[in-house]
Design goal:
The chain is an all-alpha fold. The protein is built from three helices and no strands. The chain is flat, with a radius of gyration of 16 Å.
Length: 91
């Protein structure tokens, strides 16, 4: 078993990677918001969201499926909020 400091160091490393990916994702969401605004499209597309949630649960495997689904739901909620703040059409 690895010691606590080693494990926490690994978690810190993963957190840095996740933060980098979050900022990259939100930058892409800004572009999506611009496209949606220009084309009069809504922020929320239920079919797309459900497809992503189903994919995440399936890809994570049985043990982690509910956590993956909840994580991606929170991520998409933040993304929708950011899209609305950047000016995409609301539903």
């Amino acid at each position: 078993m690895r010691d606590l400091d080693t494990l926490r160091g690994e978690i810190d490393r993963v957190n840095r990677q996740m933060l980098a990916l979050l900022t990259e994702r939100l930058s892409l969401c800004a572009e999506v918001a611009e496209y949606k605004r220009a084309h009069g499209l809504p922020v929320y597309v239920p079919e797309r969201e459900e497809a992503i949630l189903n994919w995440a649960a399936s890809a994570a495997g049985e043990t982690f499926a509910p956590y993956a689904r909840e994580y991606f739901q929170a991520l998409m909620d933040l993304s929708k909020e950011y899209e609305r703040e950047t000016g995409a059409q609301s539903v």
